[in-house]
Amino acid sequence: MTDVTTLDVDAVKAFVTIADLQSFTRAADALGTTQGAISVKLKRLEQKVGQKLVERTPRLVRLSAQGAVFLDPARAFLAAHDRAIAGLSAERRRFSLGIATHVGAPELPTLLARLNAHDPALTIEVRLDDARDLLDAFDRGIIDAVIIFREDDRRDGEVLGPDQFGWFATPDFVHRPGEPLRLAASSPACGILNIATRALDAAGLPWNEVFLGCGAFAVAEAVSAGLAVSVFSCRMAPPGTIDVSRRLGLPELPASEIVLLSTLSDARSRAALRILAAAFRDHPPASHHR
Predict the structure, then answer these.
(1) For residue range 112-130, what is the model confidence (pLDDT) as tens digits?
(2) What residue stretches are annotated with the HTH lysR-type domain (predicted)?
(3) From 3.40.190.10, 1.20.140.10, 3.90.1010.10, 3.10.450.50, which CATH number describes the 165-248 domain?
(4) What tens digit of pLDDT does each residue of 61-117 get?
(5) Longest dimension (CA), the chain
(6) What pLDDT is recorded for position 152?
């Protein structure tokens, strides 16, 4: 790299956000600015360091070899800056975030770690639960923000993207015609379960709940072991499972939307929430055979 005397914090933050989200559009949304402004900041940083950091095509955004080398030092630079700013105030900010178990992104732990590095003075308390329980806690003021799938006729909230559900089981799962479908569910209050069982009833298909109330992890384990069928978001279906809707003649489930509801008003908390929201927005669903 060329001789660098100073780095612009906003430009480095733009670079790291582009690297994390692999998109100029999502990076701009996460940082509350425009795609043009993000491009200008990146160009200014590349001119400063004398290296091309990001390679951009109409279909792909990825780091250059130099950008990959610079990424970790850039994170450390931002973390040091934020620690210095946080040191001016003894007050730590925190907010509670609820994420529905059917919605949670697999990369969430990594994303939270990066958020902590970006803003060490902000603590995010995450609760994973059924959507209706989270929505009830949000309406009662117990949780500051929730990311859930849209239910019933409630129209408020920011739409982060579509969510499609399917019936998932292992490829060798056996269901004998005429026998009740073995349906694994984590909670009788689960909205997706209610939608699924209503669809089965409407189609005249008998079913039995198994592993009820054992938690989302136990349900996923039961399905992965070939013991039952369950309903999952196509983004969150357990590895090794497939959509068996057609093979078993199960009713199609309606599409939904992932939505964000928040009461947060301070700029730093909302900035962190925008980064989280951008990770969910346009997140491609996993590919599963039918």
Answers:
(1) 776 776 677 778 888 888 7
(2) 7-64
(3) 3.40.190.10
(4) 999 999 999 999 998 898 888 777 766 554 567 889 888 877 766 667 766 776 776
(5) 75
(6) 57
pLDDT, tens only, 36-51: 999 999 999 999 999 9
pLDDT of residue 189: 53
In this structure, CATH architecture of domain 93-157+257-280: 3-Layer(aba) Sandwich (3.40)
From the candidate CATH numbers 3.40.50.2300, 3.10.20.340, 3.10.310.30, 1.10.10.10, the one assigned to the domain spanning 9-86: 1.10.10.10
- 9-86 and 93-157+257-280 in the same fold: no
pLDDT digits (tens, 9 = 90+) for 232-251: 888 778 889 999 999 999 99
Higher pLDDT, residue 163 or 39: 39
φ/ψ of residue 29, rounded to 5:
-65, -40
Task: Answer yes or no: are the C-beta atoms of 233 and 164 closer than 8 Å.
Answer: yes
User: 75-84 — which CB contacts under 8 Å span 24+ positions?
Assistant: 75/16, 75/114, 75/117, 77/7, 77/12, 78/9, 78/12, 78/13, 78/16, 78/117, 78/118, 79/117, 79/118, 79/120, 81/9, 82/118, 82/119, 82/120, 82/121, 83/120
Any residues with CB less than 8 A from the CB of 243 and at least 6 apart, and which? 166, 167, 168, 234, 237, 288, 289, 290
| Domain regions of the chain by residue span | 9-86, 93-157+257-280, 165-248
Torsion of CA 168, 110, 37, 44, to 10 degrees: -140
Mean pLDDT, range 134-154, rounded to an integer: 84
| Cα–Cα distance for residue pair 21/33, rounded to 1 Å | 15
Distance CA 147, CA 194 (A): 19
Tell me, what's the pLDDT at 60?
86
